[in-house]
Amino acid sequence: MSERVAVYPGSFDPVTFGHLDIIKRGLTVFDKIIVAVLNNARKDPLFTVEERVALLKETTKELNHVEVDCFDGLLMDYVEEKNVHVVLRGLRAISDFEYELQIASINKNLNPKVETFFMISNNHFSFLSSSMVKEVSRYQGNVSDLVPEAVEEALNKKYGRQ
Ligand code: ADP
Q1: CA dist., res. 119 & res. 127, Å (int)
Q2: Which atom of ligand 1 is nearest to the CA of 120?
Q3: Could you give the strand order of the β-sheet that contains 86-91, starting from the edge strand earlier in sequence?
Q4: pTM score, two decimals?
């Protein structure tokens, strides 16, 4: 049987325990996960793509069968290039649902061979988002329950505290 590979795309600005939970649980379903950082010109990220990739590499280094990459443009062009047929996404609250439904439908139109696979967020992380983490960290709140240490340090540096 051929290897089951999924692409897990997102901004990862920065990676949180919620993302890592999806990656770990995804590895129980897929043989390999390619975590793909989107270089999205529309968003105004805190971390550069290179920094986000580096943090993902650092925080997944103990996991086998995880590759970290980045891409520009359409996700469907990227998966085609990688010859992958599954997109992995995490679903937190109902609020994620409508947005995810739109993207999954558009992607299905662009490439009917590609399936989007959703994993429900772990209860502990269902209200955790990168933007929440940035907001808390910016005002010096404690984010150690929300992100790995390397990310906490990177946030402290960004906000000029180290
Ligand atoms: P995007 O900018 O594409 O929404 P994110 O980096 O915010 O990307 O998230 C990437 C993926 O991870 C999305 O599918 C998102 O729903 C999922 N995700 C984000 N935070 C969590 C979490 N706390 N638990 C589960 N899934 C999450």
Answers
A1: 15
A2: 25
A3: 66-71, 32-38, 5-10, 86-91, 115-120
A4: 0.95
